[in-house]
Design a protein that fits this description.
The protein is an alpha+beta fold and 394 residues long. 30% of the residues lie in helices and 39% in strands. The protein contains four helices and 20 strands. The strands form four sheets. A six-stranded antiparallel beta barrel has the order 3-10-13-12-11-14. The relative contact order is 0.19.
Length: 394
């Protein structure tokens, strides 16, 4: 390209650039200022709260087992049923147990009859047992004969052999009476043993009806009608849902803030708009060496059974710790890619400032780093703002 032509081209480019700069300046000069609402960062007293995650669990949970062998004849309750303490859950066939109880009762009645007692009355004293009364009468007669024989022998009116016969009869009668007393004692012991057997048979008969150990819900049924179960065979799982137990771990740095009786606010995904109240009831004495946290247990009232065991829960524990903190409206925070910013106004233009947030306090949030008290910031509608924008306060 020749010299004159090149010179003309350069002059045209310079003119175009000058026009572009001029139009940009005009555009900037004509940019309309965006109206914003300013608010000063405030210092407030903040009651500290501990936020942790936990799990709801049944207050009590037990596997109910059969105590006697039998065939399942009836399911009184099933999965999901609410049951009261003592309510029948399952009925086993009682026929064989009834036969056993009747047999034990008959054996007892026989023993009482031999003892000379009525069917249901108190046992009479040993001296009134028929065998004891009979042997006592024989002993008394033998004693009289022996006394008479000794009297006659002392006057040489009875031979020595006859005296010895009277003595033998007395010894035999005495041995018979002792044997009668021993038999009566043995019979009395047999009656007590038979009474225990009858009570055991009656208890087994009652155990044919398997009952709920406490108020709760049937969480699982483990047998079916017609199934034969052995003693200690699990038949149902019962859980107590009022109140529920909440288990969680709290970081060790919060140990001075947590005490028994502290209020808890519990939220679950199933009811996102509802807050359930609870209290801390137990605190572990030691810290888990792996998680560097300590376990706590809470109680959450659940009178209507809405909350379910095993549910994930977010827990907020109120403490007595009050601190001064810089707070701003939540609406003043712009979040981008894991960073939080607020906007201050400098010479009529926005300047973003990165901040570190602390606890959420209703419609406000704590600023732990990046902002001083009293600093004016844009309080609302910050999502569309950017650095360098011209603004004017409303």
């Amino acid at each position: 390209m020749k010299g004159p032509a090149l010179t003309v081209l350069l002059l045209l480019n310079v003119a175009a650039a000058a026009c572009s700069r001029e139009s940009g300046v005009k555009a900037a000069a004509g940019e309309k200022a965006h109206p914003v609402t300013l608010e000063a960062a405030q210092v407030r007293d903040v009651r500290r709260q501990v936020d942790v995650v936990g799990t709801l669990a049944a207050k009590e949970e037990v596997i109910v087992s059969a105590e006697v062998a039998g065939r399942v004849s009836r399911l009184v309750h099933d999965l999901g049923d609410r049951v009261a303490a003592g309510t029948p859950l399952i009925e086993l066939d009682p026929e064989k147990l009834q036969y056993r109880a009747d047999g034990q009762r008959a054996t007892l009645e026989q023993a009482r009859a031999r003892y000379g007692a009525s069917a249901d009355g108190e046992l009479p004293p040993l001296d009134t047992v028929p065998t004891v009364v009979s042997t006592k009468a024989q002993l008394d007669a033998a004693q009289q004969q022996l006394d008479r024989a000794r009297n006659l022998a002392s006057r040489n009116l009875l031979s020595q052999s006859d005296l010895e016969i009277a003595q033998t009869r007395y010894d035999t009668a005495k041995a018979a009476r002792d044997q009668g007393l021993a038999s009566a004692r043995q019979l009395r012991a047999d009656i007590e043993a038979q009474s225990s057997s009858v009570r055991l048979a009656q208890r087994e008969l009652r155990d044919a009806v398997i009952r709920a150990p406490f108020d709760g819900y049937v969480a699982e049924r483990l047998v079916s009608p017609g199934q034969f179960v052995q003693p200690q065979a699990p038949v149902m799982r019962i859980v107590r849902l009022q109140p529920l137990k909440l288990t969680a771990e709290v970081p060790e740095k919060f140990a001075p803030w947590i005490e028994n009786g502290r209020d808890m606010a519990v939220k679950v995904d199933a009811f996102p708009e509802q807050v359930f109240a609870g209290k801390v009831v137990r605190i572990a004495p030691g810290v888990n060496l792996k998680s560097r946290a300590f376990a706590i247990e809470g109680e959450v009232p659940n009178p209507d059974g809405k909350l379910k065991p095993g549910t994930f829960a977010r827990v907020q524990i109120t403490t007595d710790r009050v601190e001064r903190a810089v707070t701003i409206p939540v609406s003043a925070v712009q979040s981008r890619y894991g960073t939080n910013r607020v906007f201050v106004v400098k010479d009529g233009q926005l300047a973003g400032r990165e901040v570190v947030l602390g606890d959420r306090l209703g419609d406000r949030v704590e600023v732990s780093q990046g902002l001083e008290a009293g600093t004016q910031i844009v309080a609302t509608d910050v999502e569309q703002l950017a650095d360098g924008m011209k603004v004017t306060s409303k």
